[in-house]
Specification:
The chain is α+β, with helices and mostly antiparallel strands and 203 residues long. It has one domain. Helix content is 16%, strand content 31%. The protein has five helices and eleven strands, in the order H-E-E-E-E-H-E-E-H-H-H-E-E-E-E-E. Strands 1, 2, 3, 4, 5, 6, 7, 8, 9, 10 and 11 form an eleven-stranded antiparallel sheet that branches.
């Protein structure tokens, strides 16, 4: 994996940054899910702490490293909120939800080009750790009780200027197809054709 790709892999959040939030943005992250046929034709989906990426290229390379016989991967674009401090970038999204973060007051205002509710978070902006706590399941920042299955994901990167792609009007889903162990996976966007990402994994 090249250094440029490695630098787009997100890590699990550690609340050790007490610096103020300099910027809030909306963006997109790429979530890799591996699916396999289990006993009695049961389909099992798996993902790990390293399955979130800030680029499609990085997500595809992660899938290549994880592939096994019978594996099928899905890469889904997820909307996210991006908080930047002088030390790091914190990214918040959610999985197992048709509209990630849509039930959070601040997220809704941000996704709608920021509104008056942001002013209520000004004190939290002075400490990124407090801002992130506003997205914990027990926070009053949610319009309703957050169910466990919603899985709010909080990630970080030590580069406070890491590029995060801007929010898109419609999230895309990419599905893999194996064309032999000597070739890279082919990828099909939902409703599209399979396209091989690379010519050969041995290049």
């Amino acid at each position: 994996m090249s250094k440029s790709v490695r630098n787009r892999v997100l890590k699990e959040y550690v609340g050790d940054d007490v610096a103020g939030v300099n910027k809030i943005q909306c963006g997109v992250v790429y979530h890799v899910v591996e699916g396999r046929n289990a006993w009695h034709s049961t389909w099992v989906s798996q993902y790990s702490k390293k399955s979130m990426h800030t680029s499609l290229k990085s997500a595809k390379e992660y899938a290549e490293r994880c592939r096994k016989s019978g594996s099928v991967f899905r890469i889904k674009e997820l909307p996210c909120l991006v908080f930047r401090t002088c030390k790091k970038t914190v990214i918040i999204t959610a999985i197992n939800s048709s509209k990630p973060l849509s039930e959070h007051y601040l997220a809704c205002e941000c996704l709608e080009d920021f509104g008056e509710i942001v002013s209520d978070y000004r004190k939290r902006l002075s400490c990124s750790r407090d801002m992130v706590k506003g997205f914990f399941p027990n926070s009053f920042g949610w319009k309703r009780s957050v169910k466990k299955k919603d899985h709010v994901i909080i990630l970080e990167h030590e580069n406070n200027e890491i590029r995060v792609e801007p929010l898109k009007s419609e999230s895309k889903l990419f599905v893999s197809k194996s064309v032999g162990s000597d070739n890279f996976l082919e990828w099909k966007m939902r409703g599209g054709k399979f396209v091989r990402s690379f010519s050969s994994p041995n290049m």
